[in-house]
Amino acid sequence: MTTDPTLERWRLVLGEPGESVLNGQPLSGEAASRDAALDWLYGRDEELRTRGIRGGAGPSPLTTVDWLTGIGRLFPKETIERLQRDAVEKYEIHDVVTNPAVLETITPNQTLLKAVLHTKHLMNPDVLRLARRIVEAVVRDLMEKLKAEVRNSFSGSRSRRPSRFRQARNFDVRRTIRDNLAHFRPEDRRLLIETPYFFSRTRRHLDQWQVILLVDQSGSMTGSVIHSAVTAACLWGLPGIRTHLVAFDTEVVDLTSDVDDPVELLMKVQLGGGTNIARAVQYGSGLIEAPRRTILVLISDFYEGGDPHHLVRLIGGLVDQGTKVFCLAALDTAANPHYDTHTAQRFANVGAAVGAMTPGELAAFIAEHVNR
Question: CA 219, CA 212: separation in Å to the nearest integer?
Fold first, then answer.
């Protein structure tokens, strides 16, 4: 007798206490494998143990490598990433990213990148080289996604005037079709293009601007550090912009020399420690050459470990001198902020812009001011 798939799903959700839903029938082979994989991870949850709840029927013989291989076969991509995130963040199973056998086969994603950044100090050089593969793959993916947004933000708007410069992105489809209709061949349904037309693009003259990114590298800001590094790399080399990237906790580290290589930059970041935002803002203010052509972006949860009054005075001073100050509570693709609302309000009271945005939105914000 075949077990009802719907009942099997309920059994997997409920764990061992849900045995009764199967009416005495065993789990099918694949469902049993899923149950073992879930139990390997969630069976170690002490809170569930105290309530007498387990995911499966006893200790699992699975190794980390077996488990990762299994979930890749048994679950959809979104579920795999959730299981991996719980493994490295909730249960701190470090060998997910420190075991060479795992690192050679695992599929890189942002959850694993965060885990590498948190545990790279535990890795010997050989393991670190394998872990770097995860960093490179995820950064490459993020760069590809963000680069187009950044370039579009800074590429200028299309005008309706024709252009002699032939670029595919400026191809004027409507005029080209309209003015070449005389060359349409109905017998083979083809339009021969004798003269293609292109738009021109308008660009205002760009004065040199400084963009200074101050990034909190405390443990809770890992996503912000990753996306700040990628954003800075995408801004690097754009005409009219000079980018600085500064990481801080209680100390300040200027990472600008590595902005063009976000992989190397992330491998140098030391996550954790306290927070002295005022020290970072003081350092950033010392980099400013032309206040009215400078955008200073503070990316932090705003929980100041130093003197908050001194911090607010520094922010207010930058605003008063004409620097555009933007305080970001989050800088990742989800833009889910967690921050000190009291300090954020004080920043706003002295004239700083305060908000949460994705890397693409930050690029558009910078482009809006640079292209004025």
Answer: 21
CB atoms within 10 A of CB 351: 13
Is the C-alpha dihedral spanning 228, 234, 239, 243 positive or negative? positive
- Give per-residue burial for 312-335: e unless 16+ CB within 10 Å, then b: bebbbebbeeebbbbbbbbbbbeb
SS3 string, 349-368, reads: HCCCEEECCCHHHHHHHHHH
**In the chain, how many domains are there?**
2
Whole-prediction pTM? 0.69
166 assigned to some structural domain: no
The segment with the largest mean pLDDT, out of 129-138, 219-228, 357-366, is 129-138
24 occurs within a structural domain: yes
Structure confidence at residue 244 as a pLDDT band (50, 70, 90): very high
Does residue 335 fall inside a structural domain? yes
Cα 215 to its chain centre, rounded Å, is 14
Residue 182 lies in a domain: no
In terms of average pLDDT, the best of 45-54, 126-135, 332-341 is 126-135
Closest CA to 369 of 204, 147, 202: 204
Residue that the structure tokens 């305080």 belong to: 327
Which of left, alpha, beta for 190 (phi over 0: left; psi -120 to 50: alpha)? beta
Of 5-19, 221-235, 332-346, the one with minimum mean pLDDT is 5-19
Which amino acid is present at 246?
A: V
